Amino acid sequence: MDWSDFPHLSQHHRELAEHMAQGLGEQALVNLLHCPPEQHVARLEQFEAFVFGQRRNASEARNEALNRTVETLSARPAQPRPIRMDPPKFDGTSPHTIVHWLLTVEQCGVAQLIEDDTRMVSYAMSNLRGKASEWAYSALMANADAFPSWAIFKAKISAMYQPPNNEVLLMARFFGARQAKRSLQEFVQEMRSLSAFINGEPIPERIKVATFMNGLRHWPIASGPFQKGASDDGRVN
């Protein structure tokens, strides 16, 4: 384009004319330049206003869409994230631990956001070892619906590995526990675990303390470590 034929157009207006040709085609520019010269500037400025308006509308539409997205996301409740926790493995060699193991599996399942019964059973079975694992998978091989729910799985594995006189055995272990060569902290932990395993009528606190004191290798200066925890030298934590 030889702009020398259009001295009345500034550099800005010439750039607008080229932009018009790019956006609307060369014919649009030809039509413009065939108009009387006094109309050139006004029409180019109309085109400029149109382009700015289109850009503004597009920007506003993008901002509105972004705001709607932000509002939608803000309105959604915060989704909890699973916490990676794994229970100890159960092999069936310590029957008195089955109650504690099942409780631990449930707590780990909650932390990992496992709500479906089928997944919960699968998760528990993945933490079985040895004879306990063989028992569970043999049951599934014999009957695919052997464990249709978490409650049934718990009942069956408890019946299999928890002795009929489990409460009596646990009580006997609790009242016969001795510190021997273990640290005081290890003895405290055993007493707490045994107490937690007993599902019958709760043992009165005074009897727990008396049993604990009776099992100590040396009597500590401060009493009540079973209730509050103690360090190896007998001081209450």
From TrEMBL:
Residues 123-218 form the Retrotransposon gag domain. Pfam families: Retrotrans_gag. It comes from the Eukaryota. This is Retrotransposon gag domain-containing protein.
